[in-house]
Amino acid sequence: MIQYIIRRLIHTVFVVLAISLIVFFSIRLTGDPVAIMFQAGEPTKEAIEEVRENLGLNEPLIVQYGIFMKQLITFDLGESFRSGLPVSTMIAERMGPTVLLALGGILVAILIAFPVGILSAVKRGTAVDFFGRIFSLLGISFPNFWLGIMLIIVFAVQLQWFPASGYDGWKSLVLPSIALGMILSGILARLVRSSMLEILNQQYISTAKSKGIKDWVVIIRHAFRNALIPTTTFLGIQFGSLLGGTVIIEQVFSWPGVGRMIIDAINQRDYPVIQGGVIVLAMLMILVNLIVDLSYSFLDPRIKVGGSDK
Amino acid sequence: MEEPILKVENLEVGVKKDTGFMNIVNNISFFLKKGETLGIVGESGCGKSMTSLSIMDLTPASVSLKSGKILLKDKDLTAMRKNERRKVRGKEIAMIFQEPMTSLNPVYTIGYQIVEMIRNHQNMTKKQAYQHALNMLQLVGIPRADEILHEYPHQLSGGMRQRVMIAMVLSCSPEILIADEPTTALDVTIQAQILELMKSLQEEMNMSIILITHDLGVVAEMCDRVVVMYAGEIVEESEVHELFENPKHPYTKGLLESLPDVDEDREYLSSIKGTVPSPSEMPEGCRFAPRCAFASEKCQEDPPVFRVNQKSSCKCWLFEDSTAE
Ligand SMILES: Nc1ncnc2c1ncn2[C@@H]1O[C@H](COP(=O)(O)OP(=O)(O)OP(=O)(O)O)[C@@H](O)[C@H]1O
Ligand SMILES: [Mg+2]
Predict the structure, then answer these.
(1) CATH number at residue A230
(2) Is this prediction's pTM over 0.90?
(3) FRET partner for B1 with CA separation of 20 to 30 A, picked from A36, A46, A121, B196?
(4) Residue A198 lies in a domain
(5) Terminal alpha carbon distance of chain B
């Protein structure tokens, strides 16, 4: 087990290395940060040169990358071109809201998809199944920013049940979580339905019924418990696109998270903030996948993660 | 004579289609006495499993009971509400299946699954239930039972899993055990052990068994009486010796002839020509007639069941001289 985690950590180092390379060079193709800083006035050539020198942008690219990597090894993500604040401090402030939003999205997806998927499978071919499948289709078909705007119009502007934007108490989390979780809930409900259908045909379900236990116990304890195995894998894989979704949702709901910080930083060509933000999100993604992999040995006794050593 | 513990009367089971009701099991009646083993034999697809699943109320969603009675002592199971019917399962009638490899839930320990069964029907604390589960595992001859209790199904062989199934379904001392080809998936030596085990437990617990099988060898070994099914109907019902020594129905004769004979050194096995008709294209009259060597004009008409002698009855015009039942 320990060995397995160590192997995964080494793996992580390589992934981060690759991502740092891609981010570092690709953002430098997008334009000059200094030109954007001086958009308003008419700066002198000297002023521009001075800023470039201070930010270290006059060094050759390779040297810049070297400096960036050297800092990264000591977990120093540099300072923002704009505010001069340490990037790590900026991320630390915004990580909480992003993780909260992601968890909110997953919670919404699970709360909707599990009952819908289970009912669809159990009541296969009936009206319940029909509406369940329509729902999945709708969930998948609406883009999340559109859904976000609709939710704001109906529940924030018209009904005034929830705030339209900002980060202030659990009420402000509701609409963005729904907007984020809806697509996932549509896909997840389909997966739960098809897994349940397959499992309900298994022999051990007949065995469970033949024991005379209640129907819903058979469905939840025996069938759904097994459906959790593919479902968890799927959620682990989907976590990446969920994080991608937070970038958009944070924008729509003015949510002070890492995604919105990255968008702002891209607009301002604030290189260190972009680099730091992307790398931290990637590491979050890797961490989640590690947790999912480790959870298998709890979900499925047939699987022993990382071989036999305990 | 002692009243039978289970009586199936005019059972019809089938699938609802747009064109009408398609019978899978067609008007069958049989009974089971206390402590006896009744064999149900017949080719694949003749409705053996559907019959037993109907008794358990476990038929697939598309398959339903059209008419008939299933009498457990004097209670009609078909008239019961779903919830009462559920309580009969496992408590009074238990069932084991053909596939021991997939019959147990892979994510729960053996102990958990047996205890779930016990606590569902009996008022026991967890601790008492685990103790009872342990006793059951020892009863069915599982070595290191106290460890197996905490192991998962995938850690056991097929034979061991079938023993666990038997331990589980017998944990609430059911009066009737339905075993649908319990040994088909196991290799020969294990088969014999499992059958031996079932027989000894039957005596110990004074239990009745319905044993579904393809294997006439198993029938000879295990059964007191036999019901022969063909295309959803019972064509012959007979005591076991009578069946082997003096089979009545041409189909039964065919089945017996297809057994490999150790004495005669035959080159090939004679078998019944043709195949079982599918439920959607049943022939008029006697369903076996198209494959029968003795078929005549008369067979255009559906034969009733004739009681041939005390030991057997048969659904064939050849026995017209006997009294119809
Ligand atoms: N879910 C189902 N829906 C409709 N028809 C079914 C279904 N399952 C089985 N049947 C039909 O019911 C008939 C009887 O099947 P059954 O399983 O009882 O046969 P069997 O005698 O147990 O055969 P085997 O020896 O192969 O187990 C078959 O003709 C089959 O086509
Ligand atoms: Mg069968």
Answers:
(1) 1.10.3720.10
(2) no
(3) B196
(4) yes
(5) 18
